[in-house]
Amino acid sequence: MSKLTKKQKLAAEKIEAGKAYSLKEASQLVKDITFTKFDASVDIDVRLGIDPRKSNQMVRGVVSLPHGTGKVTRVLVLCTPDAEAAAKEAGADYVGLDEYIEKIKGGWTDVDVIITMPSIMGKIGALGRILGPRGLMPNPKSGTVTMDVAKAVKEVKQGKIDFKVDKSGIVHTSIGKVSFNADQIRDNAKEFIATLIKLKPTAAKGTYIKSIYLSSTMSAGIKIDPKSVEEI
């Protein structure tokens, strides 16, 4: 068994075993236990009381975080020539159509989000095997298939993220950076959890929010008392 480093020991001492913290406490604690030399991401994991195998209990949605994600999001817009100028002005990193479709067919996926128009989806369908496994396939439900590509680009650049429950009933996403102050982390977490609550399937029975954990890159998870969610 590997020995803990001094910083790991210090972090472990700050977390009380078995304790469930309030969201406010956890938002500060996640900063206190992170000692990475880089600006680590702050992640949230929420276990839901649903059966993701059933289509009527699937939880998927989008949320615009009040303080953004802190990440530089690279956006590719696949659109018709008349929409290119607006997409570029909105901040898209790459704009075009056929040339980028060919690049993707060749294995290029060096972007974080792909936004397109309904009329273009026929051309993009063939890219499903490449984009699907990487979570890059545009989808109307996530707002990445739209006539207003400029608006979609702005929203993504400002901190809009999409999420989906996994096979274990857990929703995992990044909600900021350790460089954020505790209030910013808390605000983003509150917005994310509030969105999950709004998306509760009518078919879901019993306890919906089963557990919540907050962590940063390479840090231990901090258990959050689900009852503190009532503060939202």
TrEMBL record:
Family statement drawn from the similarity comment of this UniProt entry: Belongs to the universal ribosomal protein uL1 family.
Pfam hit, one: Ribosomal_L1
Keywords in alphabetical order: Repressor, Ribonucleoprotein, Ribosomal protein, RNA-binding, rRNA-binding, Translation regulation, tRNA-binding
Name this polypeptide is given: Large ribosomal subunit protein uL1
Known function: Binds directly to 23S rRNA. The L1 stalk is quite mobile in the ribosome, and is involved in E site tRNA release. Protein L1 is also a translational repressor protein, it controls the translation of the L11 operon by binding to its mRNA.
HAMAP family for this protein: Ribosomal_uL1_B
GO process terms (BP): regulation of translation; translation
InterPro entries in alphabetical order: Ribosom_uL1_bac-type, Ribosomal_uL1, Ribosomal_uL1-like, Ribosomal_uL1/biogenesis, Ribosomal_uL1_3-a/b-sand, Ribosomal_uL1_CS
GO molecular function: rRNA binding; structural constituent of ribosome; tRNA binding
UniProt subunit comment: Part of the 50S ribosomal subunit.
Xref: CDD domains: Ribosomal_L1
GO CC term (a single one): large ribosomal subunit
